[in-house]
């Protein structure tokens, strides 16, 4: 539904965007998925195509307490997840003239950060739920820059590389208010927050001059993102070291992020003696994170705040209608979703704020299997997103069009920890 998730909560799924949603989980759940992406980059002069494939996340959720065992604290859930936090992968080459000397520059980067987190959500009153996540952020990121001039100018070629290795704790929290509206309606309001955190990090930096032109060599371009200082020296023959720092320590200061979401569901199944079970859900989110306040080792980065708006809807047809064909029954058991999202990018491209707009369409297909008195209630989710990250080609900024296809698996066991009675 356009990536709306801050106010999402029900007994059949959970939202990693708001840990308060863990409270309503009533069975053990496992969620994972696969994502494939196609990209077209447009510089205004040339177009490039690329693709990507990744495993987005692994997540487990289970109820610690469920039912009317107390006046409050009736529902309590636990979540453990492994999530990608950020990813860097680029290589670009530019040619210009500096002080009358033709110069070619090559930039490359690789790496990323992953978050392992554990969280809990609990119902604290009839309508109010709260939750929190504690995560450990870890990984490394390398960026390299090489500058070459023709041999005839007798100028020094220079290579500089920096690698950041980080590991530390990050935290986020959330709350959801849920109330009935009439006989068939449910209104949910959600809040979430990424709490500012300092992640310990270590930086390795080195720079040296070298001889010869190597940009046409594929192995050299690959080495910019794979090699260490000694590897460079052995491969291209460093002529003089400029600096070599291997143990600088500091912090990555993660900024504050806040979001608000609203969701309304109209469900015929909530009626007394309901003859229909069709439902309709509409939702909207707004989120902002202060990336302009992000610092690395005390230095600010040329970043801007992220702001996003998303909205969407989902439809579940009536499955109690009689006289349907097998195909008709299958189509009516599914949930159909659509939505849109608008967000601003965090990178400043020649004083141009990049804007990301996307449309999404999805289908959720339930898979219910009963075996050995245990009922498995699971879902297969297929989502297609199409969008564009737009800058200004007049300023030689990149415009990116993309198509993302995601296949998600939400596996649940309804009968866990259930003891059968033997007569």
Task: Tell me what the structure shows.
The chain has 423 residues and is mainly beta. Strands 1-3-4-5-6-7-8-11-12-15-16-17-18-19 form a 14-stranded antiparallel barrel. A hairpin with a 4-residue loop joins strand 5 and strand 6. The longest helix has 9 residues. The model has no long low-confidence stretch (mean pLDDT 84).
SSE inventory with pairings:
Blueprint: E1 28-42, E2 47-54, E3 58-66, E4 75-98, E5 101-123, E6 128-148, E7 157-181, E8 185-195, E9 197-210, H1 218-226, H2 229-236, E10 238-254, E11 257-267, E12 279-289, E13 295-296, E14 299-300, E15 306-316, H3 326-333, E16 335-344, E17 355-371, E18 374-390, E19 399-413
Antiparallel strand pairs: 1-2, 1-3, 1-19, 3-4, 4-5, 5-6, 6-7, 7-8, 7-9, 8-11, 9-10, 10-13, 11-12, 12-15, 13-14, 15-16, 16-17, 17-18, 18-19
TL;DR?
This protein has helices spanning 218-226, 229-236, 326-333, and strands at 28-42, 47-54, 58-66, 75-98, 101-123, 128-148, 157-181, 185-195, 197-210, 238-254, 257-267, 279-289, 295-296, 299-300, 306-316, 335-344, 355-371, 374-390, 399-413. It is mainly β and 423 residues long.
Tell me, rounded to a whole number, the average pLDDT: 84
Strand order of the largest sheet: 1-3-4-5-6-7-8-11-12-15-16-17-18-19
Note the main sheet: 14 strands, antiparallel, barrel
* Shape label: elongated
| Strand content bin | over 45%
Number of strands: 19
Tally of alpha and pi helices: 3
The helix-strand sequence is EEEEEEEEEHHEEEEEEHEEEE
How far apart lie the N and C ends?
Answer: 48 Å
- The helix content is under 10%
Helix/strand class: mainly beta
Low-confidence stretches: none
- Output the radius of gyration: 26 Å
């Amino acid at each position: 539904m356009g990536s709306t998730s801050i106010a999402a909560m029900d007994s059949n799924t959970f939202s990693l965007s708001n840990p308060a949603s863990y409270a309503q989980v009533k069975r053990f759940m496992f969620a994972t998925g696969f994502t494939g992406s196609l990209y077209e980059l447009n510089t205004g002069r040339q177009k490039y195509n690329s693709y990507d494939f990744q495993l987005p996340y692994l997540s487990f959720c289970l109820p610690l307490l469920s039912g009317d065992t107390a006046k409050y604290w009736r529902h309590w859930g636990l979540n453990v997840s492994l999530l990608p936090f950020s990813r860097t992968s680029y290589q670009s080459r530019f040619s210009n003239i500096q002080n009358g000397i033709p110069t070619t520059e090559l930039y490359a980067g690789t790496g990323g950060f992953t978050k392992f987190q554990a969280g809990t959500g609990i119902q604290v009153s009839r309508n109010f739920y709260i939750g929190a996540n504690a995560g450990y952020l870890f990984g490394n990121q390398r960026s390299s820059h090489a500058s070459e001039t023709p041999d005839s100018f007798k100028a020094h070629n220079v290579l500089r590389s920096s690698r950041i290795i980080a590991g530390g704790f990050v935290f986020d929290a959330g709350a959801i208010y849920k109330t009935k509206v009439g006989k068939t309606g449910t209104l949910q309001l959600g809040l979430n927050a990424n709490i500012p955190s300092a992640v310990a990090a270590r930086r390795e930096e080195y720079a040296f001059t070298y001889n010869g032109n190597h940009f046409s060599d594929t192995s050299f371009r690959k080495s910019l993102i794979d090699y260490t200082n000694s590897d460079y020296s052995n491969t291209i023959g460093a002529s003089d070291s400029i600096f070599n720092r291997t143990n600088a320590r500091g912090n990555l200061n993660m900024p504050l992020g806040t979001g608000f979401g609203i969701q309304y569901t109209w469900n015929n199944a909530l009626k007394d003696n309901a003859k229909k079970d069709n439902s309709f859900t509409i939702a909207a989110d707004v989120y902002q994170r202060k990336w302009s306040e992000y610092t690395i080792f005390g230095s600010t980065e040329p970043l801007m705040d992220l702001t996003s708006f998303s909205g969407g809807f989902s439809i579940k047809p009536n499955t109690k209608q009689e006289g349907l064909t097998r195909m008709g029954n299958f189509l009516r058991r599914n949930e159909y979703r659509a939505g849109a999202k608008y967000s601003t990018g965090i990178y400043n491209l020649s004083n141009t704020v990049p804007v990301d707009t996307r449309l999404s369409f999805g289908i959720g297909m339930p898979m219910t299997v009963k075996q050995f008195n245990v009922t498995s209630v699971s879902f297969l989710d297929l989502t297609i997103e199409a969008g564009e990250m737009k800058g200004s080609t007049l300023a030689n900024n990149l415009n990116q069009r993309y198509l993302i296809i995601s296949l998600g698996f939400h596996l649940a066991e309804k009968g866990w920890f259930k003891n059968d009675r033997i007569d």
